[in-house]
UniProtKB/TrEMBL annotation:
Species assigned in the record: Comamonas odontotermitis
Pfam family of the protein (one): TP_methylase
Protein name: uroporphyrinogen-III C-methyltransferase
A biological process term (GO) from this entry: methylation
Region (Disordered): 270-306
Keyword Methyltransferase listed: yes
Higher taxonomy: Bacteria, Pseudomonadati, Pseudomonadota, Betaproteobacteria, Burkholderiales
Pathway(s): Porphyrin-containing compound metabolism; siroheme biosynthesis; precorrin-2 from uroporphyrinogen III: step 1/1
Source domain of life: Bacteria
Amino acid sequence: MNDQLFVRPDNTSLPSAAAPSVGSCTLVGAGPGDPDLLTIAAARAIQQATVLLVDDLVNDAVLEWAAPSARIVHVGKRGGCQSTPQAFIQRLMLQEVQSGEQVVRLKGGDPFIFGRGGEEVEFLRAHGVSPRIINGVTAGLAAVTSLGAPLTHRDHAQGVVFITGHAKPGGAGPDWAQLAQTAHSARLTLVIYMGVAGANSITQGLLRGLPGDTPVAIVQHASLPQQRQAITTLTELPATMAREQLGSPSIIVVGDIVHCAALAAQAERSVDPQQGGDPALHNTSSFYDYDSEALPTRAPRRAAQP
Ligand code: SAH
């Protein structure tokens, strides 16, 4: 099955990257959960790994790309360890590279969006190892897209802030009131990671700069079959999360683009799935004048049956 992914339409295979002869380390973004969201570069790196160090929130299905001989080590809480200390993971990565292994450090979403990829890279570089990074689809992006909402729809937002709801131990964490004021005046969407435990205090802070009726979405297990979500308002956020029992891992999205999610949900309910939308807009490959108001009319593919 694995080989088939790399077969081009003309039936030639993609050349695989030359296998390195010394140890190496690649930080790979496994995406938000759906294994189909893995990049080709990620799948290829997983195939070539001799050791995989796997985080929590990485869907086991992506490990199907690993070679049968590869050693798979779960280094997250759900892997059996209470919570593998970060320093231990970093030392393990280095030790495996130094023993000549092709190490893949598999992280949920994107390796450089939260999730401590930056610390791991700094540690490796300080020890003379230069890791390769392969991006993944970050959970915040997948969560918003799964609702049918464009993250930066220009009618609703001018930008987006990816922010953690979980302060570094000993750190003060974001100034939510200040952030809310900026988000309000600059029309920014807030995409909050790790915000479940602190949802109450985050809400109180945000209400000091954003109207109580600001739309909010909570998306749990984005992109996975067990995905659940709710659309509510800022004032109602904690009560909605409690009532709908939305827990971790979830993304909380705050801002007017959530209106698009509500509209998308409405449209989905009213569309007959047999119809599948306007057939004239499917399978087009022509170039359009994007500035013109009207779509060009297309000749029917085949003559209508008499
Ligand atoms: N590097 C990851 C984020 C790691 S921080 C990324 O780019 O996505 C962990 C947080 O990410 C979780 O607490 C949750 O807020 C979010 N998260 C990860 N996977 C998720 C998913 N499938 N659905 C919703 N939130 C998710």
